[in-house]
Specification:
It is a single-pass type II membrane protein. Residues 416-469 are annotated as: Disordered. Its EC number is 2.4.3.1. The termini are far apart. The protein has three domains: 1-47, no CATH class; 50-75 and 89-124, no CATH class; 156-343 and 358-422, sialyltransferase cstii, chain A (Alpha-Beta Complex). The chain has 14 helices and 15 strands. The chain has helices at 2-6, 27-47, 52-64, 127-130, 173-182, 213-217, 234-237, 268-279, 291-301, 307-318, 357-370, 381-386, 388-398, 405-414; strands at 10-11, 20-21, 101-104, 107-110, 114-115, 121-122, 156-160, 166-171, 198-201, 221-225, 243-246, 261-263, 286-288, 322-325, 375-376. Helix content is 29%, strand content 11%. Helix 5 crosses helix 8. Strand 9, helix 6 and strand 10 (221-225) form a beta-alpha-beta unit. It has a seven-stranded parallel β-sheet, with helices on both faces. Strands 1-2 form a two-stranded antiparallel sheet. It has a two-stranded antiparallel sheet with strand order 3-4. The protein is an alpha/beta fold.
Length: 469
């Protein structure tokens, strides 16, 4: 400060022959900052809030001990013994919990992959527990989940999964400008929602073994994958659909005209399809995953994620508890059809996948379940994927009696459901089946100069029967 004042706010040294401006020392400012720091420290101690240092120390300890850290009490309520003074709430409004949490009863409730007082800390998971299923998985994705008009203003690119990560062009600047004119103005599906309970529902034939419909419908958000109808199977897998994650192959498929389809953004077909849909006389309710999320999948997994794995990781980013139904790749070897809605279709497996891809995806789902990030909604999943004897023992203990695959086909014919070769493949199914509400019920791709707005609706009184732990 003496050097600064002596030189009128400038000084020169042998290392810096050119004078450099140095602001004069402001004792009042320094004292004011120190007072603010002391006041913040006092509030932290009084409210017993976990600071960044606290959270980091707990993560390091958990990682060193090879423990998973899947949930967190953002406030140490257990320390408040009988007769203790009440603890002030952490949050008053949803905005205080950031994009990864929701404010309930004065506390920020975080989605699965985030923790902390205001849900600002990405979960740190022990590599010892994740490997070999997810050896390089980093859950910290801070980008957008849904593509909307505020996210992109230049070229849109996405990482291509594989041994060497390369960028693919989805849209050039002109296409991006055209896209922004028809995209929703903002993300009304995922942004700051932190859904309490989510069910991710796939197509495995194992869903036919149990009457899981009520349990699935009890979740606040039901995410179904691909062209998987619920009509005729309500007892086994429910009727509620809030959102359907799909790819370019199934864009035209609809069980209900108002269903909101969330299409993946892994190729240029996404952009051309969105533009063509908006220009059609009756545009369907379609939104797209943000390419940033697709790139995070490619980089974090090291292989291409199918709908099942992509849907699961999407749910972990936006839900506080995630339960999986029909995602394990069970089939005739486990005494069930490969797909519940195609019991007469011969098993085809994953012949179009690169070698080892199916095994890698299953190992990733196993790793997520092993550390407690997701729960299996069906019994005997791990046992039936491990060995026939273990599968039979587990099912027998629960009174589950599988039957030959041919018998499933005959049952479908007797019930009047068409076999696979006669099943409808595209188009919108008429009528409103079931009582599930669609997240995008009033969402539609708008015409020139207008975006498509997705209206989120859910049953706030529903409670899932399973929790994250």
């Amino acid at each position: 400060s003496q050097l600064s004042s002596a030189s009128g706010g400038h000084f020169a040294t042998s290392q810096h022959p050119t004078p450099i401006h140095a602001p004069p020392y402001n004792a009042g400012l320094v004292a004011g900052v120190a007072a603010l720091i002391n006041e913040a420290d006092a509030v932290v101690r009084q409210r017993d809030i976990d600071t960044d240092i606290d959270a980091t120390a707990r993560r390091l300890a958990a990682d060193a001990a090879a423990l998973d850290l899947t949930t967190s009490d953002q406030r140490r309520w257990a320390r408040q013994g009988p007769g203790a003074s009440p603890v002030d709430p952490v949050c008053i409004s949803p905005a205080e919990c950031g994009p990864h949490g929701a404010c309930e009863a004065g506390r920020c409730r975080c989605v699965v992959l985030y923790t902390g007082v205001v849900c600002g800390h990405a979960l740190v998971l022990s590599p010892a527990l994740l490997a070999p299923g997810l050896p390089r998985f980093v859950p910290a994705y801070e980008g957008e989940l849904m593509l909307h008009a505020q996210t992109r203003h230049a070229d849109i690119r996405v990482l291509r999964p594989g041994p060497t990560l390369e960028w693919d062009l989805l849209a050039d600047a002109a296409e991006t400008a055209a896209l922004n004119r028809i995209l929703p103005p903002s993300d009304l599906v995922f942004k700051s929602k932190a859904y309490p309970t989510c069910a991710v529902v796939g197509s495995s034939g194992s869903l036919l073994l149990r009457r899981l419909g009520p349990a699935i419908d009890a979740h606040v958000l039901v995410l179904r994958l691909g062209a998987t109808p619920s009509a005729g199977h309500e007892a086994s897998l429910g009727s509620k659909t809030n959102l359907r994650l799909t790819d370019e192959r199934d864009w035209a498929w609809r069980e209900r005209p108002e269903d909101l389809a969330l299409v993946r953004s892994a190729s240029r077909a996404t952009v051309t399809g969105l533009l063509a849909n908006a220009a059609s006389p009756a545009p369907a309710a379609i939104v797209a995953l943000d390419p940033g999320f697709e790139s995070w999948l490619a980089e974090g997994l090291g292989f291409a994620a199918d709908l099942e794995l992509a849907g699961t990781l999407l749910a972990l980013q936006t839900c506080r508890a995630v339960t999986l139904y029909g995602l394990a790749p069970q089939g005739p070897a486990q005494g069930v059809p490969e797909a519940y809605h195609e019991p007469c279709k011969p098993a085809v497996g994953t012949s179009g996948d690169p070698p080892g891809a199916a095994a890698a995806r299953w190992a990733a789902l196993q790793a997520l379940a092993r550390v407690g990030l997701v729960a299996w909604g069906e019994p005997c999943v791990e046992e039936c994927m491990a060995a026939p004897a273990a599968c039979d023992t587990c099912r027998a203990a629960l009174g589950i009696v599988p039957k030959p695959v041919d018998a499933w086909c005959e049952s479908a014919r007797a019930a009047g459901r068409p076999p696979a070769e006669e099943a409808p493949g595209g188009g919108a199914a008429g009528g409103d089946r079931g009582n599930g509400t669609a997240v995008g019920k009033e969402s539609a791709a708008a015409g020139s100069g207008q975006g498509a707005a997705a209206k989120t609706e859910h049953n706030s009184t529903a409670a899932a029967t399973t929790t994250r732990r």
